[in-house]
């Protein structure tokens, strides 16, 4: 497994890379400067330690303050027909994919069974499931965290 | 600078201090520039580093120190203006140009610089190099980030964890 170490590291500073990666403070400062939450998620997958640093509550609070979450859109319901209104304008790909996700809850791929969006908090939605004639069932869903299905 | 002489000790504006790198090279630099380092600031305020004494920096080699001081000398005037609230747009643009150029360097130099900025606690430089690394990894997949930063290849276990994480946050990879 050590064979990969032969790559790229100039012999003068083999220790430096390790040093950079072993200080949590330093890593946190780097992660804070990523531009989008998606970048932070990619970084979190790099290894266990990065996941721990990227999941730190204080760091996430700072990240949020630095990069306020954009409005992706909003849900409205009339006559049992819920609709997602995308935030207008052009969005960078990182945001556009989140918007697609939020909208997909209400398409066929999302089941098409949501009859009411009651409330939302922190990316979670309280919805009613069931057809017009069926008995509705309240449920909490997180559109951004739904497993990728057909789309 | 023509700032009013206050607070800066009693040795006048151009007081010099000597810094000694890990490989024993001596660097003479204005106290105001070296004081951008929080680590050195107290020593310098106490009158250290003057005369023949010099402040030893056992963690910083001469190539890195010379690069660090290039930054400090460039940024000292603005820092002396209290973060330069009254700096002109031209001054700020010039500093920004300098900063961009400054981190346009080899990875090995960058990593030494990161460590030095961290050890010497030079806030502006820490922020500049952290931004540079962030720019290097943004928009990359976890695997690409590992390659970019010279991680060893992931173990099968690490690979499995990475895949699981990517599955869980599928939307972030669309």
Automatic annotation (TrEMBL), chain A:
InterPro entries: F-box-like_dom_sf, F-box_dom. Pfam families: F-box-like. Residues 24-62 form the F-box domain. This is F-box domain-containing protein. It comes from Eleusine coracana subsp. coracana. The gene is gb08399.
From TrEMBL, chain B:
Residues 124-163 form the SKP1 component dimerisation domain. It comes from the Eukaryota. Pathway: Protein modification; protein ubiquitination. GO terms for biological process: jasmonic acid mediated signaling pathway; protein ubiquitination; ubiquitin-dependent protein catabolic process. SUPFAM superfamilies: POZ domain, Skp1 dimerisation domain-like. InterPro entries: SKP1, SKP1-like, SKP1-like_dim_sf, SKP1/BTB/POZ_sf, Skp1_comp_dimer, Skp1_comp_POZ. Keywords: Ubl conjugation pathway. Residues 16-75 form the SKP1 component POZ domain. Involved in ubiquitination and subsequent proteasomal degradation of target proteins. Together with CUL1, RBX1 and a F-box protein, it forms a SCF E3 ubiquitin ligase complex. The functional specificity of this complex depends on the type of F-box protein. In the SCF complex, it serves as an adapter that links the F-box protein to CUL1. Part of a SCF (SKP1-cullin-F-box) protein ligase complex. Belongs to the SKP1 family. This is SKP1-like protein. It comes from Eleusine coracana subsp. coracana. The lineage of its organism: Eukaryota, Viridiplantae, Streptophyta, Embryophyta, Tracheophyta. The gene is ga14711.
């Amino acid at each position: 497994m050590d064979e990969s170490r032969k790559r790229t590291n100039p012999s003068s500073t083999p220790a430096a890379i390790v040093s950079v990666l072993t200080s949590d403070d330093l890593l946190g400062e780097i992660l804070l400067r990523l531009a989008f939450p998606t970048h932070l998620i990619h970084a979190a997958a790099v290894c266990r330690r990065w996941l721990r640093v990227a999941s730190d509550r204080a760091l996430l609070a700072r990240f949020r303050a630095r990069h306020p979450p954009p409005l992706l859109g909003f849900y409205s319901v009339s006559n049992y027909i819920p609709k997602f209104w995308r935030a207008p304008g052009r969005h960078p790909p990182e945001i556009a994919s989140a918007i697609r996700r939020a909208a997909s809850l209400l398409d066929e791929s999302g089941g098409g069974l949501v009859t009411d969006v009651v409330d939302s908090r922190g990316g979670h939605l309280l919805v009613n499931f069931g057809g017009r004639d069926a008995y509705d069932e309240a449920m909490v869903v997180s559109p951004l965290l739904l497993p990728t299905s057909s789309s | 600078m023509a700032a009013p002489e206050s607070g800066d000790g009693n040795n006048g504006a151009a007081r010099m201090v000597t810094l000694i790198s890990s490989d024993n090279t001596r660097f003479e630099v204005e106290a105001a520039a070296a004081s951008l380092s929080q680590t050195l600031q107290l020593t310098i305020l106490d009158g250290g580093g003057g005369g023949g004494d010099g402040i030893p920096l056992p963690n910083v080699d001469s190539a890195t120190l010379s690069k660090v001081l290039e930054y400090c000398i460039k940024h000292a005037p603005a820092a002396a203006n209290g973060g330069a609230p009254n700096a002109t747009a031209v001054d700020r643009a010039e500093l920004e140009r300098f900063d961009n150029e400054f981190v346009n360097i080899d990875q090995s130099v960058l990593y030494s610089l990161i460590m030095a900025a961290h050890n010497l606690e030079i806030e502006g430089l820490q922020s500049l190099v952290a931004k540079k690394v962030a720019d290097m990894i943004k928009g990359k997949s976890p695997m690409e980030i590992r390659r970019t930063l010279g991680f060893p290849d992931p173990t099968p276990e690490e690979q499995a964890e990475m895949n699981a994480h990517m599955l869980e946050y599928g939307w972030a990879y669309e």
